[in-house]
Amino acid sequence: MADGAQESVEREWARHWQYAELPGLDLLRAHYVHHTFPRHAHDGYVIAAVTGGIEEVGLPGGIVRAGPGSVVLINPEVPHTARAGVPQGWAYATLYPSRELIAEVAAEIGSLRGTPGFTADSVTDPQTSYVITEVHRAAEEGNALAADTLLRGAVARMLTRHAGPLPARTVRGAGAVDAAAARAVLLERMARPPSLEQLAAELETSPFALLRAFRARYGMPPHTWLTDARVRRARTLLDAGTAPAEAAVAVGFTDQPHLNRHFTRIVGVTPGAYRRGRSGGRPPAAG
């Protein structure tokens, strides 16, 4: 493929980018066959229109199988996985709106109180699915007016039909307090984290108790959560113009290939392709 913003593996392709005229939004359009997303979470929301094949999304409540005409909805910090549900894989167009963008649209429609949260994991809505693909098309054509109009319409429709107040996640009990403290330690010492045994000793608990509490609080064990957190921080550094090799060392990966492997699994494109997609320009049509 001609542009570095696209990564091709056999029949797979993906583009992860930003359009400067749509602040607070990341865009991903892709066709995955063999690629699987490990358990991870997002700072913001996920609104994904499946356009071909079947996507299997692993959520705390179970597996969701989404096909064409479906819209997958995921709230911030909800751990999930994704993989193909059929041999030919799945294609989708995804919107990653920030918390600020969702709050702005929610305030405009005025029907929700507090922080909005989706109440459904997947809905059958061919109309919204189509509109989401049109957001991508308009952005790729540089039609800011159409892209922004369609984006706000799709988000408003999902919030009006499938959202309510996002429940506050309160920390209760000794185990939950220990899990939150462990998370803070891992964030602070991301580049050189302690072992599970060392971390438990610092918090005056046992490794098994801490592991159980952390998994219950964050939906994944500490080492999986740390890998996801490292990739998130690497994204922030890449957004700021940091070279992938420097970002890898800064977040605690041993080298750039180590970053490449985990980044590609979680984000869906390589760090280099991701960085090129932050230019805000219009990419060529996908192959």
TrEMBL record:
One of its GO terms (molecular function) is sequence-specific DNA binding. SMART domains: HTH_ARAC. Keywords: DNA-binding, Transcription, Transcription regulation. Transmembrane segments: none annotated. Residues 180-277 form the HTH araC/xylS-type domain. InterPro entries: AraC-bd, AraC_XylS_family_regulators, Homeodomain-like_sf, HTH-like, HTH_AraC. PANTHER family: HTH-TYPE TRANSCRIPTIONAL ACTIVATOR RHAS-RELATED (PTHR46796), TRANSCRIPTIONAL REGULATORY PROTEIN (PTHR46796:SF2). This is AraC family transcriptional regulator. It comes from Streptomyces vinaceus.
